[in-house]
Write a structure and sequence with these properties.
single chain; mainly alpha
């Protein structure tokens, strides 16, 4: 029965390890449900997940060992003694108790495990607490992201407004410069007109001279027109013969 002895010792070792680890897991679960605000700061979330994985691994190994013991007890070639059967049965009962205890620990904090009436009215459990913390953390992250996005949008809008103001100032400066240039040109034309008027007023006979030149040109044009008309009449009379 060497196989039985080996499995028996392995089962007792796993039970001892599981009991110790389950106690740590229960204390950590109680800490999480009581100190919800310190979960992220203290790293309880990661520790709880790690310990939960270790507890579940130990329970799975304990189940496999119990299955091997049960298979050994059902072997007709090597039937176990009465004491072995009682020990195998006891290991199975311990496994069932540990599995039930683990499920209860996941559902409620350790302070309520031995108070059924309080547990019935309590709505707090480890997963619910972690979900609540995750939700609050997500909300805080969303708020921070929204604030950051809103601030970036406001800064971008302010930049566009400043750019528009700068462009408007440039257009106004160009308009003022154009108006000043028009004023300078108007003053220059007025000065030229004034000087021309002064020149004309200093030469009294210039208007008469200009009038005589215009009259002479008009007379020359009339004489030239008469000569051209006479030539055309003579040419037409000659051709008609």
């Amino acid at each position: 029965m060497a196989d039985y002895e080996s499995l028996h010792r392995q089962c007792r070792t796993l039970e001892s390890l599981f009991d110790t680890k389950l106690t740590s897991y229960s204390r950590l679960a109680s800490t999480i449900t009581r100190n919800q605000n310190d979960i992220e700061a203290g790293g309880s979330r990661e520790r709880w997940k790690d310990v939960e994985g270790e507890v579940e691994d130990l329970l799975e190994k304990l189940r496999e060992t119990n299955d091997e013991l049960l298979a050994l007890s059902n072997n007709p070639d090597t039937p176990p003694s009465q004491s072995m059967s009682r020990a195998i049965q006891r290991h199975g009962e311990v496994y069932q108790d540990y599995a039930k205890e683990l499920r209860r620990t996941k559902v409620c904090p350790v302070s309520l495990l031995h108070e059924p009436s309080s547990r019935d009215t309590s709505q707090t459990n480890v997963q619910h607490t972690l979900d609540k913390v995750n939700l609050l953390s997500g909300v805080r992250n969303d708020i921070e992201a929204y604030k950051s996005s809103a601030a970036d949008s406001l800064l971008a809008e302010r930049g566009r407004i400043d750019s528009s103001h700068s462009m408007t100032d440039q257009i106004l400066d160009q308009a003022y410069e154009t108006r000043a240039e028009f004023s300078r040109q108007s003053m220059s034309l007025a000065s030229i007109n004034s000087r021309m008027t002064g020149v004309i007023s200093t030469i009294p006979g210039i208007n008469n001279l200009l009038s005589m030149i215009k009259s002479r040109r008009r007379r020359d044009s009339i004489i030239l027109g008469i000569l051209i008309g006479g030539c055309l009449l003579l040419l037409m009379s000659y051709m008609s013969r």
